[in-house]
């Protein structure tokens, strides 16, 4: 794995939010799926971490965004936790995976990835995280990769074109979307390898 992406460990991130502005709008859900490699050099899903997040103090909650995601930020059954409790544990777990795979840092994989990166970095700054394992601006964007591979940029349609089951009723949950994005990313990268575009170092 450390040789596949020049020392980067792909980590799929999805966030659900209270709007589009990472500086002012609430982070409501975050999920991360790490990627590993089998003996044949194929990527596959590894571990998934998923959390419901309490809006930070003064965070904006756009009613249109909440209607789109279906999230009630104040529902008692969400069992949400503050960012400052979630982020350190999540990023520490990712740092462990980076070290386990002998990589130098994590690179965020996302569908329209810079959106997710913006909210992740803003939350890490609010929590004063000093050891953020993620590259500050490089990402792998599955919207772009799907446009290349399948002519689709919407996650549900890209998964359908790739033969990956996708439930619209479960979509817009960070946990579900992260795992589907991870499946899509692995499928595209593995197919490229099978076509001869990249060969494992062992070969």
Low-pLDDT parts are none
Q: What portion of residues belong to β-strands?
A: 15-25%
Strand order of the largest sheet: 3-2-1-4-5
Query: What percentage of residues falls in helices of 4 or more residues?
Result: 25-40%
- For the residues shown, what is the average pLDDT? 95
Dominant shape: globular
Number of strands: 5
Described by strand count, sense and barrel closure, the largest sheet is: 5 strands, mixed
Q: How far is the N terminus from the C terminus? A: 14 Å
Structural class: alpha/beta
Q: Which oligomeric form is depicted?
A: single chain
* Rg measurement, Å: 17 Å
What's the gist of this structure?
The chain has 203 residues and is an alpha/beta fold. It is built from six helices and five strands, in the order βββααβαβααα.
């Amino acid at each position: 794995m450390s040789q596949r992406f020049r020392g980067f460990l792909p980590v799929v991130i999805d966030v659900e939010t209270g709007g589009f502005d990472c500086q002012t709008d609430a982070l409501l859900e975050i999920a991360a799926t790490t990627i590993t490699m089998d003996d044949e050099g194929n990527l596959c899903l590894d571990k998934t971490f998923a959390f419901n997040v309490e809006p930070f103090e003064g965070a904006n909650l756009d009613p249109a965004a909440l209607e789109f995601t279906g999230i009630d930020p104040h529902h008692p059954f969400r069992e949400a936790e503050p960012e400052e409790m979630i982020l350190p544990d999540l990023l520490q777990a990712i740092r462990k995976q980076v070290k386990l795979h002998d990589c130098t840092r994590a690179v965020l994989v996302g569908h329209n990835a810079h959106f997710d990166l913006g909210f992740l970095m803003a939350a890490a700054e609010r929590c004063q995280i000093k050891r953020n394992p993620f590259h500050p601006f490089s990402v792998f964007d599955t919207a772009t990769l799907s446009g290349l591979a399948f002519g689709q940029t919407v996650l549900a349609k890209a998964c359908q074109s790739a033969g990956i089951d996708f439930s619209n009723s479960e979509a817009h949950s960070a946990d579900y979307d992260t795992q589907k994005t991870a499946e899509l990313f692995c499928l595209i990268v593995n197919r490229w390898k099978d076509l001869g575009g990249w060969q494992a170092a062992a070969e």
